[in-house]
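One-letter codes give the sequence; the fold follows as tokens. Both lines appear below.
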Amino acid sequence: MRDKVCLEIGSGWVLSHAVIFHLLGAKKVIATDILPLAQSQSLSDAIHKAVPSVVRDILSPFCEHSEIRARLANLLSIDRWTSDTLNRIGIEYIAPIDLAKNRLNIPADLVYSLSVLEYVPVDDISPLLENLTSDLRRGGIMIHCIHLEDHRDILNHPFAFYSESEESFSRNARGEWVNRIRKSQWREFFNNVKGLDYRFIYEWSRRDKDIPTVIDPSISHEGEDDLRISHIGVLGIKQ
């Protein structure tokens, strides 16, 4: 991560991943979101309530321990977080922005998302992936961690949304819920991104809960194994 430009999509309330990239020595971090969700108090609480030794020990395999210590000490010395404070340490927060409609035009070495792509409307996925790939430098990496379960009741009913009509999950009707795309369809989306060499780096499944007996015909899948996949990780490299 040292001296790299990192772009996170869907940075959320705390900006925790942006801070981690900074601690690992990123030259610049661009934290983006479709809505301006970041809360300065949440960021301050996360930093000041963390156990410094745990943070250093977890990150030290990826960066010099002394550098992490110095950067973390600097963060702990900050009492009030503002956009100017973020900019001074190399974190630029851009929200609202819809990266399916707009390119940043800032060359990035890393694009990262955690539990974000499952919220993107189906029609926006291809333009989003194309824009993100365009903003990557040649040889740059994108990593997407995608959670494929029904987020309304992950513990007890991770597959309930399979039986609901397509209209229930339209952009206007249920945009706050996930898009129900399965791994097989994600493979098609990534296959169609020009200039990106990708692979799945992990795949988890749920076997403890039943799948509805009726699956809405709008859901593209390759059978029960595909329907039971709960999480996937995608690693892409710009060619």
Residues 5-238 form a domain with the Rossmann fold fold (CATH 3.40.50.150).
